[in-house]
């Protein structure tokens, strides 16, 4: 008895249309996937465009409030201080009212200094007048004087920077230095800003108590979440290296020419 191998089953009438249907289903699935991907990309562009617009409005409002405090409230307090001093000078040296006036003049001077400090925190005029390098050096100098912390600044010559980019890097530097002063228990901090390879890099390194970098980034505490989101709006990123007892090194990287989100199709 001779054994024979089974012959392949002949194509049935329904197999070719079945494969065609499978191909059609796969093509439709690919189109749906591409449409979903396109929608996600449009939503991402819309989010970034809206985020940048909101941030610009916030900065403009900060600029207006800072100007009003400095030019309005600050100048009125200065005038009031001078008038009180003039009244005090007109009184006899043994007049008991002079003591009251001296107290009022001192209070007026303290309030004037607080107003100027608040104005600088809202929007330092030096950032608009002289640019990022001068603003960061001024910020570091002021914080060092107020805290006793040693703050070094290294900024080699930078190329011309867009106004948004200068504000972005300044705000990140301001938040990072504030964290170092308030939480790091550091003795010294080094701020470095360099432009290289089409990127602008800000580094803030301290010799403080350090932290668990991964947990800090996940929680977004100490302003890290805000810094990261602002950098993302301009195609940037935030890196944090730290360990307990080994200080903290924050690095912000952003393109020198961030892409402008295009209009929604």
UniProtKB/TrEMBL annotation:
Q: What is its EC number?
A: 2.7.13.3
Q: Identify the InterPro entries for this entry.
A: HATPase_C_sf (IPR036890), HATPase_dom (IPR003594), His_kinase_dom (IPR005467), Sensor_HK_TwoCompSys (IPR050482), Sig_transdc_His_kin_sub3_dim/P (IPR011712)
Superkingdom per UniProt:
Bacteria
One annotated GO molecular function is: ATP binding
Keyword Nucleus listed? The answer is no
All copies of the Histidine kinase domain together span: 113-258
Instruction: List the residue ranges of the region (Disordered).
Output: 1-22
Keywords from the UniProt entry: ATP-binding, Coiled coil, Kinase, Nucleotide-binding, Phosphoprotein, Transferase, Two-component regulatory system
Top class in the EC scheme:
transferase
Residues in coiled coil: 23-50
A GO cellular component entry from the record: membrane
Reaction(s) catalyzed by this protein? Answer: ATP + protein L-histidine = ADP + protein N-phospho-L-histidine
Which PANTHER family does the entry link to?
NITRATE/NITRITE SENSOR PROTEIN NARX-RELATED, NITRATE_NITRITE SENSOR PROTEIN NARQ
Full protein name: histidine kinase
- Its source organism is Agrilutibacter solisilvae
In the record, what lineage is assigned to the organism producing the protein?
Answer: Bacteria, Pseudomonadati, Pseudomonadota, Gammaproteobacteria, Lysobacterales
